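Dear Dr. L.,

I hope this message finds you well. Following up on our conversation about the binding site, I have prepared a predicted three-dimensional model of the protein together with DGJ. For your records, I am including the exact sequence and ligand specification that went into the calculation, followed by the structure tokens. Please feel free to forward this to your student if that is useful.
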Amino acid sequence: MADRIPHLRKQGSATQLVVDGQPFLILGGELHNSSASSLEYMEPIWGRMVDLHINTVLLPISWELLEPDEGSFDFTLVDGLLDGARRHGLRLILLWFGSWKNGMSSYVPAWVKRDTARFPRIALSDGSTLEVLSTLAAANVEADARAFAALMRHLAVVDADQHTVIMAQVENEVGVLGDSRDRSETANQAFQGPVPDRLLDYLEANLARLGPEVRERWTAAGARTAGSWEEVFGPGVETDALFMAWTYASYVDKVAAAGKVEYALPMFVNAWLSFDTQAPGSFPSGGPLPQVIDIWCAAADHLDLLTPDIYQANFEEWCRRYTRNGSPLFIPEMRPGADGARNVWYAIGQHDALGTSPFAVDSLGVPGVQELIGGDPLTGPGDTPLARSYAVLDQLAPLILEHQGTGAMAAFLLDKTTPRVVRQIGGYELTIALDEVFHFKAELGYGLIIAVGPDTFVGAGSGFRVAFRALDVRAQKVGLIAVDEGVYREGQWVAGRRLNGDEDDQGRMWRFSPYGISIERCSVYRYSSISGTVH
Ligand code: DGJ
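The resulting structure of the complex is given below.
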């Protein structure tokens, strides 16, 4: 039974999610925070998810609604959400809104909120307390872990056969807001006390793999193997963030561990990312950001993924930072509009992401609402940029999954700042540039290309053109044999138009029109530029 639970596995350099024995590409979408608290409210949303070509819905399960009275659990909502998802052929990723959500503790039950003596809070330097549970109180973590374990125990019963739920996020965007660390008496003592041996041992054993931020702070302070937090990492708000990362990661790991004992789904945490000039506390201090990710790795064995919520413009850079040392990528939150619909291609095609999940997808394509989150007022979810991207990625999913981790797949985002990129796959160097023909030049391009066999490529996307160069014999030139557009039906290629003439620049360029998203198959050959001999 255990191996039938959704789980992670390696394929080459990639990490894949296996569901019902098959690798699974998450074409996800996360709902607004409050949508899934009412089954009635959800009823029209399920169909909209299907129209968006979403295969996995990310939605919260909150501690307050699961355990309204201590020790008494109400699974009505969970069961109703499973039922709604199943009726629409959708999978779910549950977001456990337990002790923390966006750094706050607004989702803890009333009996926790009211009992500040039993469930201590984080304090500021002026002695005031925040409405935020302390990371250092055993009562807090034990109560949260008990509730999360009850949820997982329930899933083990009601979802053991169908595997509607494929992963769980433990807490949401944790970290201290308003200060760089907890200033309560308990926290001050822990901060002045010794850095745990487990962390120091991890730093020593993994020195070469550490991120630059942690490595530099630790070595600049003398790479000490004993001492207080400020002795080991030096003074400053960055050290406060390392300390908070340790306490959050240790806490969340206990919650995840308690859940995994009951039902060992893959589990992850998500990060509210910082902007360059921000100090810890203006973003959640201690959350699983790249600056402190080594601390999370040292503390949290029961978390399978540390994931970014990427709302920032420099999407590619965050993907790179989260895949350091071959770490798997999953993006539980990102922008839902046209830019998000382009970025999903990059995460999936270039970084072998387990999947992507734009936020607020229940607003997509809803007239009058969509405008609030950016994008055109459209007539329905199926017409949105995300739906168009996911419809094609859904066709390509078997091919993408087959080639993950093999080095045969590349993806790209092109614009005026980066009008061209170079990728090497399938024994060729591909120069991929914004498409242009006659006087027309595309302003945006995006897509992915897979080397599917000798001299054969499948590409999909919009607004780019590809020139080939052979990697092995540099004197040889590369020509196009044929370019076909087409679709994949149940994994089988069905060719449509043969593209030649203007559509492949008279045989000189593999082109993808900026008007829509297409899938094309291209075969190439090499010829000598000297003798004209064809190989
Ligand atoms: C990030 C949080 O994780 C989500 O739950 C939601 O609050 C969004 N921010 C809102 O943009």
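In brief: The pocket of DGJ is lined by residues 33, 102, 172-173, 309, 333, 359 (CB under 6 Å).

With kind regards,
A. P.
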